[in-house]
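User: Predict the complex.
Assistant: Input components as received:
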Amino acid sequence: MKMSDRKKRILQIVVDEYINSAVPVSSKAITEKHLTDVSSATVRNELASLEELGYLTQFHTSGGRVPSPQAYRFYIEELMQRGNLSAADLDYISSAFSDKTADVEHLIKSVANVISELTDYTSVAAMPNAEEERIRNMTLLPCGDGRALLVIVTGSRILRDSFIDLPDTMSDEDVANASHMLCRLFCGKALSEARTVEAEALGEFGQYRQVMTEVIEALKSYARPRDEDIVLAGPEKIFNHPEYEDIGNVKNFLSVISSKDKIAEIVGDEDDEIQINVKIGSADGKDMPEDCSLVTATYSAGGKNLGTYGVIGPIRMDYSKVIAVLENVGKALEELIGGKNKDKKEKDDE
Amino acid sequence: MKMSDRKKRILQIVVDEYINSAVPVSSKAITEKHLTDVSSATVRNELASLEELGYLTQFHTSGGRVPSPQAYRFYIEELMQRGNLSAADLDYISSAFSDKTADVEHLIKSVANVISELTDYTSVAAMPNAEEERIRNMTLLPCGDGRALLVIVTGSRILRDSFIDLPDTMSDEDVANASHMLCRLFCGKALSEARTVEAEALGEFGQYRQVMTEVIEALKSYARPRDEDIVLAGPEKIFNHPEYEDIGNVKNFLSVISSKDKIAEIVGDEDDEIQINVKIGSADGKDMPEDCSLVTATYSAGGKNLGTYGVIGPIRMDYSKVIAVLENVGKALEELIGGKNKDKKEKDDE
DNA sequence: CGTTAGCACTTGTGGTTGATGAGTGCTAAC
DNA sequence: GTTAGCACTCATCAACCACAAGTGCTAACG
């Protein structure tokens, strides 16, 4: 059945109103505030019909109507007015990223914070997979106690938490040589390609095979996703939304939120081609809490994949605001990163 | 007024019982379960007296008694039985730290997790101040785009989040030379001493003063405490305790917990000489939530300061268990770190 | 004089009841 | 197709009740 324009309009009003007030909306409220030219009885008929179509539900026969997940989906696709951000919000975004020159790890944190602050929801961020990043430089840094720190820099991040045990016979010069050799072998390759030169590498290292074995082990470990690849910001923000007055909901939400594995699972299977991605309720994601919604966007700028960012919150979410924030943050990053690469030459004159 | 032995015994029973059950304890419960040789009326008299002394309070005249903060303090100092951990718990501790060879940053996370898991409370951990750490090695690692990564290794951690902008005229060899110079200048010095060689350093760098200025800036920034120096584990654990059925308490707790600054303030002003430190309620720490308690211990092993660890939770906390866990974790770390330094020579034979 | 039994008093808890108000569905008239 | 009117359904709230738990006090006891 095709929906009439009036049905759409009414559905839009119901969703808007409910997002704003968190109170089930009644026919009377609709005619008083928005559709002043028809009576509440007419609206009631339409509401009953929308309910039959699966867009609305009511808890009790006398409790007003609430949008169903299906209604939110339709709302986001067709009904929602894509609002723009206030000047203050735009200022906040542009000032937040002004002097960030650092790596993805830092970027991700500040982006997550900005998103959480502006939307008033808990935000999640996932680093891009490291596997395809090209190694730009690497070194072994001796640091006493017979150990050396393996540091690897790729296009967008720093990997550096492996200590490598050194044989007693290895002098600092030996380490420096090994370091150069590593660089020659791996620089320019993606992490995922490391294994292709594994045999060659072991051969070249001869005497210090053991060291090389550990380095290769470390390289492999970086390709696997780690807990630190997921960042959360503003978990306490959920208290600002009335659905989380109930302790059970909070508990549920927090337990999902505090397991990085679960978050990774929810955020992880993004389709990279879609800019904005909305998951509503447990229907869209197995590990999602029943009554939660996740809106994410995958950013890239200047050829770099900058990760996936989003907010997680109640189904009754201010999608318009959230999507506007995600889009504008994306634009700001594009300007910052994309711009920086081009500005490079002029910059040194300052 | 000196407390009689019986008063002490009764107070101990009340606190024990309340810690276990979270229910105000009545005179009847005491005589039934513990003091079977006197009547409830006698206990009532004693309870009334203990209340006058400030150790107990009652919400309502017919609601049983609850220990006051003062009672908890007395309990911890004199009454509490210092229990030992179960074999399973001890196993858990020793297996958790078996193959951690990494830096303090990683150690702190796994320690915080272990403490949180074993005690069932939210745990907090603060890294030791970096200022007095001696630099073991440092390097500038060129990574394209006219930038280099500054990596510094100290006795117990890795500092590496500064990118340094390089002049276009600086070749990779120049960077390598600069790197060696940095090492010669700073290795063996504490971070706090960096400024003492500032003038000398700037002199030596001549042509590349700008780079040196940035390096010094970075060194200074490391001496300041950062958000990452505070780690939390198991925030969702509070839901396992009945005082946090109330949404208001949860909110309050979470808002303190999610501000690293506040945590730093609470945990920060530890007296290093005291092994175990207990703060009860807002009386002991300005930023502490009214009805919360913080138990911390500062660990060091093999001459290294390993940071301050603790749990934060309701006043009605299982102090005996918490303190036992903190002590045993401390012992395990001592063995692990202290032992490793000594084993060093034998180890390479394996 | 410490201990105890007995009893009146206080107060949270849980269940019932009834009034109120919001909101709907239905029907009949426009 | 729209509307007014009305009966019906429920959630909410306050009042009220009985009940159980626990205390404080008093008087008696050894």
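Residues 343-350 of chain B have pLDDT under 50 and may be disordered.
Let me know if you want any component modeled separately.
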